[in-house]
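User: Let's play a game. I give you a shape written as tokens, and you guess the letters that built it. Ready? Here's round one.
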């Protein structure tokens, strides 16, 4: 196994002699403060993510996110330049994403998800994971997933060449295989949330920008969609993997369009891109609403009993249980201690409600409000952090040291950037202003988002 491949396998403990420390970067492309952006920031700080770096802030020209979505790619590329390749990076859209679970849960879960996807990829080629890694087949860049392809260009490979999900048959009900979007498995790349090693993500962003430069068409309707270009990279990767597997390209019809190789400016096809079919990283709201439930895990062993079926499934239903993972219990317990409440943490945890995809059984770390934006602040106020936001922010601003209680992937993980101690924390910007306290950055919105003491 290569050193690069081995580095990104999940390991929980390691010999003392090999202990190292890596950084976690939390990036939010956004040009100016808004109510939704400030809700995003408060949710992440409260859950102990690193102090966000706001990219493209007051951006001009190609960095102006108000003008085009692809501006965020230029801002991300600028930020990632020159930094450690094996740091971990989380990038979320500014105005429709919320963090629900603590950072340490997401860090551990990322490696668990990637381990699962690497096994599935190896199985696809009839290889062991070690054999697949030696041949260069690995996953590392995890994007959110949509149930429908957007932009809707059905003949383009990002809409037909991507793999099916590995979810159990009919996980969304007996109509899963019909043409209704709500019953479809999520399998299309959504660029609004992504997590992965910094070096790999840097290469993905650079490849997307090269594709933009080589194919730019000022009259094309979706020319400013970052998702359009990133989806093409994903599709090209999967087409090549299918060719490697079968010995021929897969073009199921004369109308299907193949991406011209010269458009990409490179022979490289594999960027280790994969999408989150399970909502184990991010749930995208569009066509998932019926399975997104805020549920309490009330049993002595931290389970939630789902007693009501989705009425649109239309098949016999039996109540079932969803287990809260132990690391979620542990992480929430540590944050709860901030409040100094008399109620035991075990009782408090059983009273709060957590957003859960009841089809896949995952409590999702991130919520992405695709399609409908009008309910975003309501979603924010439903988060467990909302009543305690002030205390959580104050404590987070003082916090230092590892983000996880134990080592993950043979290392400790620390914030790429901490805030100056005191106050409610804040953000860093890339326009030369440096650190801006939350009270200043969100001055017009903070009273709406943080309950009075």
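Assistant: Ready! My guess for every position:
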């Amino acid at each position: 196994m290569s050193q690069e491949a081995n580095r990104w396998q999940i390991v929980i403990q390691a010999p003392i002699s090999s202990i190292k420390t890596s950084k976690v970067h939390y990036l939010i492309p956004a040009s100016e403060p808004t109510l939704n952006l400030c809700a995003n920031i408060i949710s992440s700080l409260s859950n102990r993510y690193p102090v966000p770096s706001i990219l493209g802030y007051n951006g001009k020209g190609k960095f102006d996110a108000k003008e085009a979505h692809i501006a965020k790619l230029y801002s991300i590329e600028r930020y990632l330049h020159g930094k450690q390749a094996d740091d971990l990076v989380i990038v979320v859209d500014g105005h429709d994403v919320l963090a629900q679970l603590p950072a340490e849960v997401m860090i551990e879960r990322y490696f668990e998800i990637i381990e699962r996807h690497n096994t599935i990829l190896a199985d696809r080629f009839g290889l062991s994971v070690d054999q697949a890694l030696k041949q260069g087949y690995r996953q590392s860049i995890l994007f959110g997933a949509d149930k429908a392809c957007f932009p809707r260009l059905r003949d383009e490979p990002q809409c037909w060449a991507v793999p099916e999900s590995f979810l159990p048959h009919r996980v969304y009900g007996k109509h899963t295989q019909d043409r209704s979007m709500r019953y479809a498995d999520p399998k299309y790349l959504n660029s609004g949330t992504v997590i992965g090693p910094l070096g790999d993500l840097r290469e993905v962003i650079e490849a997307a920008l090269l594709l933009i430069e080589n194919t730019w068409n000022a009259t094309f309707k979706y020319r400013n969609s970052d998702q359009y270009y990133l989806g093409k990279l994903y599709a090209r990767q999967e087409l090549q993997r299918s060719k490697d597997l079968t010995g021929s390209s897969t073009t199921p019809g004369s109308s299907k369009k193949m991406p011209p190789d010269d458009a990409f400016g490179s022979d490289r096809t594999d960027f280790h891109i994969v999408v989150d079919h399970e909502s184990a990283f991010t749930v995208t709201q569009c066509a998932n609403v019926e399975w997104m439930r805020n549920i309490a895990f009330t049993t002595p062993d931290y389970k939630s009993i789902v007693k009501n079926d989705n009425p649109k499934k239309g098949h016999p239903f039996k109540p079932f249980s969803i287990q809260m993972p132990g690391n979620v219990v542990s992480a929430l317990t540590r944050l709860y201690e901030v409040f100094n409440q008399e109620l035991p943490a075990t009782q408090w945890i059983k009273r709060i409600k957590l957003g859960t995809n009841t089809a896949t059984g995952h409590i999702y770390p991130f919520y992405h409000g695709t399609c409908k934006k009008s309910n975003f602040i309501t979603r924010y106020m439903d988060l467990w952090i909302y009543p305690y936001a002030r205390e959580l922010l104050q404590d987070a601003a003082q916090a230092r040291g590892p983000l996880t209680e134990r080592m993950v992937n043979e290392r400790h993980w620390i914030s790429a950037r901490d805030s100056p101690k005191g106050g409610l924390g804040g953000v860093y910007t890339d326009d030369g202003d440096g650190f801006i306290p939350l009270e200043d950055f969100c001055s017009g919105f903070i009273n709406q988002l943080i309950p009075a003491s």
